[in-house]
Specification:
The protein is built from ten helices and 23 strands. By secondary structure, the protein is of the alpha/beta class.
């Protein structure tokens, strides 16, 4: 790899899946500052299983203190971004030659924290686990990756629960080959999970918190549950980017980016991960494609290359893979060329949920 002058400064706003790994990747070749208000990296994917296996919580909340060897992690909230750097909530400035905004997204409890409240996330996960233990009937509203995985985890760990998944979609994962959704549906039903497809839920008491209560199905009856998990999708944390010149908001509060992952007319400000909309879905898979592009592009810039001379970013599009465990042993995956079953899904993700990978990333093992 080319050696860059350490005087080049990169500020990364947000220490999630993209921000933390990019900061570590650039640490040896630039002056890196990671700006993140949370004390811990949150491995949100594992927080799904943590609802039935509380011991996973601490393995999935990983302190930032060992992430960087040369650079620094600043525990603060960014309130402004411009072409010269980042303004913090204290009023202090982090000056930078290049800025990457990777502020991620919000999601319903207990899968991501509210703001920087790590203790609150711990408490929310434990509360959800206790409510789940006491519940006989469980309603899961939404059948994206979180909803389907949650149903599978509960069915595997607590087979006595009566689980119902309700979605307004006519089938699971309609954007993928039919074999994926059909296989997942078959396995969920075999585990006793009831699937209600093509029905919109009305009168949901909370969109963000697990709760007991009733829901009304569009054009249908009322259904009561001891515990309802609303899992209706993520919303990007894009307030920083909305303020930038030329910023364009797309679905779920994301910000559209150009072919070089730039969200505005500022030439040295980039955006990636859930907050950015380059044509990828909001997934860790998208991050895995954006990371190497950003690393290569930033390395080129700080070693004197021009952005116009480098390749533009190409999003996954519909070919993006997806891995969907239904507990530690079962699940299905779409891996671009084929739909895989239990064994591959277990090996890729189901067995350990990538927990060792992120422990290693943050230098905990």
């Amino acid at each position: 790899m080319e050696t860059a002058p350490m005087g080049k400064r990169i500020a990364i706003v947000g220490g999630g899946y993209l921000g933390a790994e990019l900061a570590k990747a650039m640490d040896d070749i630039a002056d890196v500052t990671l700006i993140e208000p949370r004390s811990h990296f949150v491995h949100a994917s594992a927080m799904i299983r943590a609802v039935v296996q509380p011991s996973l919580v601490e393995d999935s909340l990983i302190p930032y203190d060992r992430l960087l060897k040369r650079g620094r992690v600043v525990a603060a909230r960014a309130t402004g971004v411009d072409g010269e750097g980042v303004t913090l909530d204290s009023g202090a400035r982090v000056d930078a030659d290049y800025i990457v905004v990777a502020t991620g997204s919000n999601y319903a409890a207990p899968f991501k924290p509210k703001g920087a409240d790590i203790d609150g996330l711990r408490a929310a996960s434990q509360a959800a686990h206790e409510k789940l233990q006491a519940a006989k009937t469980v309603g899961i509203i939404g059948a994206g990756a979180v909803g389907v995985e949650l149903a599978g985890e509960i069915a595997e760990a607590m087979p006595d629960k009566k689980i119902t998944v309700i979605t307004m979609d006519d089938k699971l994962f309609a954007a993928k080959p039919d074999s994926l959704g059909a296989s997942l549906s078959k396995k969920l039903k075999a585990s006793g999970v009831e699937l209600i497809l093509g029905k919109k839920v009305e009168r949901l008491a909370s969109m963000t918190e697990p709760h007991a209560g009733s829901v009304t199905l569009e054009g249908g009856p009322e259904r009561a549950f001891d515990l309802i998990f609303p899992v209706l999708g993520a919303r990007a944390c894009s307030d920083l980017l909305k303020k930038l010149p030329g910023a364009e908001v797309t679905a779920a509060e994301r910000i559209k980016t150009d072919g070089h992952l730039r969200p505005s007319s500022l030439p040295n400000v980039f955006a990636a991960g859930d907050v950015a909309d380059p044509g990828d879905n909001m997934t860790i898979v998208a991050v895995s494609r954006q990371l190497p592009w950003l690393k290569k592009t930033l390395t080129g810039l700080i070693t004197g290359r021009k952005l116009a001379d480098m390749k533009t970013y190409r999003p996954w599009g519909t070919e993006a893979p997806i891995v969907l465990p239904l507990g530690p042993e079962r699940g299905n995956s779409f891996l671009m060329l084929f739909t895989a079953g239990d064994w591959i899904t277990k090996k890729v993700k189901g067995a350990d949920l990538f927990v060792p990978k992120y422990q290693k990333l943050l230098n905990r093992r």
